[in-house]
User: What shape does this take?
Amino acid sequence: MSALPNKAEPTPAPPAVMRSAVTLPAFPDMTPARWTVTSALVALAAGIPLVMTNQYALSVMVTTLILLVLNISWNFVLGVAGVWNFGQLAIYALGGYGAGIIMLHTTVSPWLAVLAGGVVGTLAAVLLAFPTLRLYGIYTSLLTFAFAVVIQYVIVNDGSGLTGGTFGLPIVKGLYSSLSLAASARAYYWTALAVVVASTIVLAAVGHSRLGIALRGVRDAPAYAAARGVSPMRYRVIAFAVSGFLAGIAGGLYVSYNQSISPSAMGLTPMSIDVTMLVIGGLGTATGPIIGTILLAIVQTSLVSHPGAELTILGIFLLVVVVFVPDGLAGLAARYWRRISAWAAEDDQSGEAAGPGEAAEIPEGSPDPNVA
Amino acid sequence: MSEPMLQVAGLRAGYAEATVIRGLDLAVGAGEVVVLIGPNGHGKTTLLRAISGIIRPAAGQVLLGGKDVTGWPAERIATGGLVHVPQGDGLFAEMTVEENLLMGAFPRSSWRSRRKELAGVYERFPVVAARAAQRGRTLSGGERRLVALGRALMRPSRIMLIDEPSLGLAPVAIDTVYEAIAELKASGATIVLVEENFTHIGGIADAVHVLETGTIVASGPYAELASDPAIVQTYLGSL
Assistant: This one.
């Protein structure tokens, strides 16, 4: 065994029977320092409405946070599970319409209506998952995209008056309809922020759980995942269900905050912007959707008076990222973080031989000469 | 050893219109290491894939511990105690080494003891332990092979299929890999292993079969086949 390279020190003869257990933390990437930074950022974000007096800016932030919930849900099915699902906005819209229609026609608590939006999203996503089970790559995209087009068509051409056609639902009472405009904007901000934080933490934990490694295994190599005992079909349905629930919740928050929803919430333009946010941020990472959504929302807002230029500039942004940083800004940040911590580690233990992990560290993203 | 751990009868398998395995019979007893030798493109990998359910056999039978598993999906056969170490390792490229190993313990029956098994694999392969947090695609060929073997050890198995463990490795790395396989044999594992030639299997093979155009054309103990001039001419070349 000593023939293999990179074995820095002679290993002590391993005791043959005694084996201790390896601890597997729920968040292997999170050091205490990172938790501190993360908590500080969340606290900072939570403090914004207390000092922000500009109502327009606050409403943009609420919209962005709700969009972020949608993007986190999409990132799960697209980035973590690797299913090229382009029906996510239709699922989101169905959740929104479901919640909105309940708010409009019943007197149940709007919180339950938002939750019902999540249930509608789950059901829609599971129904969409089944026909995609034997498809892969571009064929999944085509089928799910067709689903989105059909849903939009049905909503627009609904003759029963349930959806309100092109104009959308009439004004619904949302979560905070009893509050003043300024107070309700703050309340929506904190609600959406709480959903963002909770879903990021839960999905990050899921990503490292048995479910998460199964999903990523199927994404990387379906046949080999099956040979390890993972049923690719079952786990695809689960991925759709989890992601559909969160998308439905996002739809419910959307209809509640805007007091309405119309078919313009879905469609090609919002979809291309959302997918651009995900790719720029870094597909499949926990921080990617957050970085991408906030960054592009800022770009979009500052270009709001140049409506023609907006999509062009976003397109250029996307092109640059895809060509130069294919793993997105989150991947870029992770690379620099690794490099910095490697330097720090060297400084800490200068004189000691480089640890076995660092000696042959290949920067991620660089082509690996050993790939068979 | 009344009943073979693995029994293959009249197996036919292939891809689309191309039948690769043409009526193959094979029996592997518990604790036995059976090696199939054959040139490139004669169905070694296809045979293993058909046994483990990654491809569906067109005809014939596969019995695992006496139970007919023909046509079962791969995940069910895997859960039933078959471990496949695929050609080229089949590591999950974007997952860390540790996650790759955890995939080996995926079935519910073995998931609970994953922490202990992980410690065991790290102890057996310190090189793998040193790479635990790196992604699969950043490893060297020899390291990958050890991860693939380590992953196979993450749960108790009734039989292991190992596909060309020497493929594409430097000689020193091949020695390491075969040392590990010899240890598995010593611990009583039942193994079906395929290779292109006799070079590395001397120390481990109980029985050797020669695979040609999808059927077994010669069988016998290693010593017997390795001393047959006609077979040596074809499969040993450089000896």
Notes: Chain B touches chain A through 60 residues (CB under 8 Å). Chain B has two domains: 1-81+161-239, 88-156. The mean pLDDT of chain B is 89.
